[in-house]
Backbone:
């Protein structure tokens, strides 16, 4: 088969790779229905995160099980399944408390921009849908594998409750789905920080009540204006830079909550400022497996349509154009069809 | 009157100062029953925190109201009162959600090592006891003004619940009262990190089930040994250095909670490590006012005896010896009697 490999900054190739095989008895092989490019793929694509030689890419996936290892019990060939970007046994104490993305046996997936994928720890990682879903639901189902689950975790970590005032820092797919998640959790006011017209539009569609275009200190000042000088109850940090992190912390009210899911790149937090900010801080790699059953349900029942973040659809062999379009912010998120 | 003034590193003087007067109509003047030296006083005492000229010291206090300003409504002369080290109006939105130590009108107290004290925002800051308490209760009542309230907040911020496994980093009075607080909240296992025999003894008396004498990486490894390699549910950081903060974060299980109350001095948190640690982080200046009624109650009902942290009692005019004894770790905490 052919699959996606990153060779260096902005050098994405779709090239011949070996077909995946069952390696461990707990593995499954799935045939990809749809996959996509993640905002976090842009870090190494842009050369901002070193890679160790040619690197297979992709960690968002859903599709039909082709084969399972001898120790797999609950997952069967023919099932349509969705899994998290992080594998998990779903039985260890860390999984049991809902932090499957820190499972002792975690591996981060990285071969999913391909027609076939080996998924380790299939029983603990994959969630089957009832029957094979209709094609028009695939984009939304695919988001549960990472971006929706990550936006949902950001909102959950930021303690969004009915009536909350929420700020979302970052207008990528995760930020936009953070808006959707906050709305689902009953937030009353959702302020999206974005200076990109199309993303603002989608943010509003997902439930944003206000848009703030300013950034940094000016952005914080604007949030203070909008919140009687107090700051927001909950702030979702969906970028991962020093600026976005500080913008998030400074936009939060005393005693409020910052949920951060942007993988930090070069972020250093000053202890004294954090102390006097009086915020709650929680984040990390989203435990998507915890949320998968609920999010799949919301999609299948037509309650949410997170697949709208895909504003570009390409055949899988044009994956390089997907990266380019996202890098240049011409696309929010690129869906890839094998 | 005479009061305590810090002139520079290790230069504490007890010298003539003006008697405090009502300045704002919301002020009260109280006659000190007992006061004390705080671990945080040692930062400037040791020259590790700059001071801007001669600085009156002390922020822990309780005593009888002598006089109130014209706008004071609930506090009356003759009442025995206790207040937080941070003043608060107790009516603003930040106070209403329980973060009185970040009240818009907050001032940090700093004249309490003296026989008379002006307390701003008396109605919002002071809590009266029913009647004037017996002398033997004064040390315990005094701790509610800061160290007990701070240890309690550390445990609360670290989400200590019945059955929790708790680690306490720091064996000063706050850490020791963090142990007591965790016990009150129903923690099943409380691991105190201390290499000081007397403090270990008091920690055990307050409810510690285990003592760890190792520090840094070795201390973390020991905690992992004691928690099946997972880390603790809740970790109380009661020091404020880079080492203690990292020791706290690294001793916490994935999805666990760090409550930090040691005022950070030179602490920088690496965003990426924090992200993958998956901990909840919350702390800051303790909102002691939130806890005062409950903690006073626990003391008056004889449920707790936090005053045991005072292992040295001095007449107020020997305050300099109190600082010396604490600086040299000869005393856990020095009680001062005017």
Residues:
């Amino acid at each position: 088969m052919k699959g996606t490999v990153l060779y260096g900054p902005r050098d994405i190739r779709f090239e011949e790779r070996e077909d995946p095989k069952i390696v461990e008895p707990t593995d499954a092989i799935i045939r990809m229905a749809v996959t996509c490019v993640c905002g976090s793929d842009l870090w190494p694509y842009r050369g901002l995160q070193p890679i160790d030689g040619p690197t297979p890419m992709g960690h968002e996936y859903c599709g039909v099980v082709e084969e399972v290892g001898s120790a797999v019990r609950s997952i069967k060939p023919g099932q349509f399944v969705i899994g998290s970007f992080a594998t998990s046994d779903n039985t260890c104490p860390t999984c049991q408390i809902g932090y499957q993305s820190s499972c002792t046996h975690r591996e981060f997936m990285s071969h999913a921009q391909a027609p076939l994928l080996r998924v380790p720890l299939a029983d603990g990682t994959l969630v089957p849908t009832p029957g094979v879903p209709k094609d028009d639901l695939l984009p939304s189902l695919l988001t549960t594998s990472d971006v929706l689950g990550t936006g949902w975790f950001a909102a959950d970590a930021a303690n969004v409750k009915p009536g909350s005032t929420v700020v979302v820092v970052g207008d990528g797919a995760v930020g936009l789905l953070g808006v959707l998640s906050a709305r689902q959790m009953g937030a009353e006011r959702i302020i999206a920080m974005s200076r990109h017209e199309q993303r603002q539009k989608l943010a509003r569609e997902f439930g944003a009540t206000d848009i703030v275009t300013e950034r940094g200190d000016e952005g914080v000042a604007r949030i203070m204006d909008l919140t009687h000088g107090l700051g927001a109850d909950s702030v979702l940090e969906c970028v991962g830079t020093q600026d976005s992190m500080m913008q998030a912390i400074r936009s939060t009210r005393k005693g409020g909550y910052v949920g951060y899911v942007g993988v930090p790149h070069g972020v250093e937090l000053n202890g004294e400022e954090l102390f006097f900010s009086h915020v709650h801080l929680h984040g990390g790699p989203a435990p998507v497996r915890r949320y998968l059953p609920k999010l799949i349900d919301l999609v299948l029942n037509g309650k949410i349509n997170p697949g709208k973040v895909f504003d570009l659809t390409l055949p899988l062999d044009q994956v390089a154009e997907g990266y380019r379009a996202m890098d240049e912010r011409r696309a929010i998120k690129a869906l890839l069809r094998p």
Summary: The mean pLDDT of chain B is 97.
